[in-house]
Amino acid sequence: MRKRPIVLNIKTIATTSFFNIEEMDIEFSNGSKRIYERLKPPGNGAVLVIPMLDIETVLMIYEYSGGTDRYELTLTKGKIDGGETLIEAANRELIEEIGYGSNKLTFIKEMTIAPGYQSSITYIVLAQDLYKASAQGDEPEPLEIAAFKMSDLENLVYNEDLTEARSIAALYMARDVINNQ
Amino acid sequence: MRKRPIVLNIKTIATTSFFNIEEMDIEFSNGSKRIYERLKPPGNGAVLVIPMLDIETVLMIYEYSGGTDRYELTLTKGKIDGGETLIEAANRELIEEIGYGSNKLTFIKEMTIAPGYQSSITYIVLAQDLYKASAQGDEPEPLEIAAFKMSDLENLVYNEDLTEARSIAALYMARDVINNQ
Fold first, then answer.
1. Mean pLDDT throughout A95-101?
2. CA-based, 20 to 30 A from A44: which of A152, B17, B133, B181?
3. pLDDT tens digit string along B66-79?
């Protein structure tokens, strides 16, 4: 029933320091044609990490976010560097942003954020069995860390500082994984 | 503790048919300076709708997504048109994409998708008490509709066709809202 459209042509139409925009000529199986645009970043995708200080306590951060021009309550995330596995990237970001490493990193799910116009993939990783560790990241200012209880997740998701869909989805999925351990 | 950075300057650096990219000069309260880029679309944001055929059954769609160049299992979504409320937009998208309207639309949550570099807001709306209705949308091909049981959500989120973080987060939040009704 789902007969994949044909991508007749793809070309880059704009490039900035951070973004790369492609234009796609697409022909659907019913003959209709569309021109789509999408963000097509280089690189290996990103990780988002749910760090559990104990079975009940998740560590989150307040980070200034340019897109919304405000502090967002979010989970640790960052790009996967060349030559890194996603698990290595998750542990590195955790050490840089939260001040902990993890002895138990579990890949949970591959997510997209806006598949209609972005190719980006985020790998969701649960981090348990934490140990103290630190390293200099590329943050412009120290991140404020905040602890929340998973048992309060139903209320936490209504916190107005927590808006990022990936973080909300990851918290719910992590809770299910922990409950099934 | 969180002392908001100063945005010294914002300018548009690239515009295409679909995207508008801004560059921001930012000075953090500790004096460090950064140049950020962000997507700043015009308009009023988007709605994402969780349509419940009955207390247990959610209606989803398979939609070709240019960003990932594949069919994604997702919830109904679309932009809010000028002059529309978010509830009106939710009902219109539902009618166009799923073939149902709703007598009971409940706003649940305002979400962002990548607040670090996107200003976009998505309003999550639960749709219940559905009635049959149809209207022509702007889809290039008919959408395939698929029904899933909320009681199976823990498995559904591992479906490889379901990757979009907003849809996963919205399904979990809708389940909580329905359970509390």
1. 96
2. B17
3. 999 999 999 999 99
